[in-house]
Design brief:
Length: 487
């Protein structure tokens, strides 16, 4: 007789570990299987997010931002400093310490909540059985009333730029560079490319970002994307080449450099860089995950097919996070984990997929929730907007951090908030206020009538809401313009 669990979770990233903890909290006998083992032969919990994604990238972004502040932004405050030096090894060690602390924390949370853990590769068999193959080759099979697949994603590689983990690296390699490359190439101007390009650019690399699309950040509200492009290129000196498709690379091992060929509207071009980061997106990870007769199916893009409740085609088998449709974000994975655990326990939990914030942790940060102006135009939904620039915020001025704006969009007739798009200091935290407001079905006027502390960056959100109604106080209001929606 094999062991039997109420819930077996495959993967201990932010989708899987959160699902396992919530399931255990609800009294379900839960097993979480994770295959990731460190070079020191220790089980690694936390998945991409904690180990090679959100957390280490934010640690390096924080360190490199401090460096820029000390280098460029002290004099204005009347503080005199000598030119700072960067100790890359110390910066990486700090990042690694944070990762170790957090991943160790998950092991503690598993223990505290009574989650059982198994090291090994989990494979979904027919009839709600899961095969676990440990690193030493031992195979066991467990039975489950419910299975939650949270196998995550891995970087996409492209034939013209094969990752060699030396000169051509992926996002994981870009978190481990032991020195600041003089010339850094990045393929892909998406979230990861911009964040990692920022880290090394701030520390002194000459960064060239090569992006195949002709539009910068095409999924972001255009007004915000335009402002971001202006700040990154004009103020921060990032060289972002759009409509440029990488066609090949040639590594010169002796010179430790790589020639990157790309094509743009003028024809074929080349750049030579010391390191090249391939950041062209991520793909769902389903290798060796599903037995042929598991009943779980994939969609045309290779994601596990699920419905709005994260149910796969196999009864009792769920899938969450990066391995299924939707934005590849840790908080989306975690919320799906909570939803599925609670539904297994008999609750009716749902996720509001319209209210998932998306953030780029550059400086300034870019954060948004809900619909963009372009989407509303395309859908023919009448809307009104309110914009407030941080240049008019007393708190932003006091902090010498005035780049960007808050843009709020509300329905033309009902005033219900449909979206909020921010580029500016602490945009990630500011947008969360509107995520909550949207969850509560708030109107722009509700925000306008709310008291905001002074002086705070949040006042920019308040003023944007006031501007939606045409009565912002601290900027001149534009005459309400005709909504652009199609008939
Ligand atoms: P993962 O975190 O990928 O975890 C999956 C786990 O499953 C892994 O530990 C894997 O080893 C394990 N696994 C896979 N297959 C098996 C198997 N068969 N058996 C056992 N175990 C298995 N998102 C944000 O929201 N904010 C950010 O700031 C952010 N920054 C990022 C920065 C970078 C550089 C990267 C790469 C990603 C970033 N992300 C960010 C994305 C975020 O990391 C992912 O969306 C998130 O980790 C997805 O969670 P998940 O649980 O679905 O999968
Ligand atoms: P994201 O999906 O947000 O991580 O962004 C990845 C980016 O990489 C997308 O904007 C793609 O257009 C871009 N990209 C993919 N392949 C290439 C290529 N061969 N050359 C340049 N950019 C690319």
């Amino acid at each position: 007789m094999s062991e039997k669990y109420d819930v077996v979770v495959i993967g201990a990233g932010p989708g899987g570990y959160v699902a396992a903890i919530r399931a255990a909290q609800l009294g379900l006998n839960t097993l979480c299987i994770e295959k990731w083992v460190s070079a020191e032969d220790k089980l690694v919990l936390g998945g991409t997010c904690l180990n090679t994604g959100c957390i280490p990238s934010k640690a390096l972004l924080a360190s490199s931002h401090k460096y820029v502040e000390v280098r460029d932004e002290m004099a204005v405050h009347g503080i005199q400093v000598n030119a700072p030096k960067i100790d890359v090894a110390a910066m990486l060690a700090r990042k690694d310490k944070i990762v170790t602390q957090l991943t160790g924390g998950i092991a503690g949370l598993f223990k505290a909540n009574g989650v059982n853990v198994a090291e090994g590769l989990g494979k979904v068999l027919v009839g709600k059985r899961v095969e676990i193959t440990a690193k030493d080759g031992t195979v066991t099979v467990v039975d489950a009333d419910n299975i939650i697949i949270a196998a995550g994603s891995v970087p996409i590689d492209i034939p013209p730029a094969p990752v060699d983990n030396d000169t051509i690296i992926d996002s994981t390699g870009a978190l481990e560079l032991t020195e600041v490359p003089k010339r850094l190439g990045v393929i892909g101007a998406g979230v990861i490319g911009l964040e990692l390009g920022s880290v090394w650019g701030r520390l002194g690399s000459e960064v060239v970002i090569i992006e195949a699309l002709d539009e910068f950040l095409p999924t972001i509200d255009k007004q915000i994307a335009k402002e971001a492009h202006k700040i990154f290129t004009k103020k921060q000196g990032m060289d972002i080449r759009l409509s440029a498709r990488v066609t090949g690379t040639k590594v010169d091992a002796k010179k430790k450099q790589v020639t990157v060929s790309y094509t743009d509207s003028d024809g074929d071009k080349e750049i030579v860089v010391d390191k090249l980061i391939v950041a062209v997106g991520r793909k769902p990870y389903t290798e060796q995950l599903l037995a042929g007769d598991s009943g779980v199916t994939l969609d045309e893009r290779g994601f596990i097919f699920v419905n709005g409740k994260c149910q796969t085609d196999a009864p009792g088998v769920y899938a969450i996070g990066d391995v299924v449709r939707g934005p590849m974000l840790a908080h989306k994975a975690s919320e799906e984990g909570v939803m599925v655990a609670e539904r297994i326990a008999g609750k009716k939990t749902q996720i509001n997929y319209d209210c998932i914030p998306g953030i780029i942790y550059t400086h300034p940060e870019v954060a948004s929730v809900g619909m963009t102006e372009e989407q509303l135009v395309a859908d023919g939904i009448p809307y009104k907007t309110g914009v407030f620039p941080f240049a008019a915020s007393g708190r932003a001025m006091a902090a010498n951090d005035t780049g960007g704006m808050v843009k709020m969009i509300a329905h033309e007739e009902t005033d219900r908030i449909l979206g909020c798009h921010i580029i500016g200091p602490s945009a990630a935290d500011l947008v969360q206020q509107i995520v909550i407001a949207m969850e509560f079905g708030s109107s722009a006027e509700d925000i306008a009538l709310t008291v905001f502390g002074h002086p705070t960056l949040s006042e920019a959100v308040h003023e944007a809401a006031l501007a939606v109604g045409g009565h912002a106080i601290h900027i001149a209001n534009k005459k309400p313009r005709k909504p652009k929606a199609k008939k």
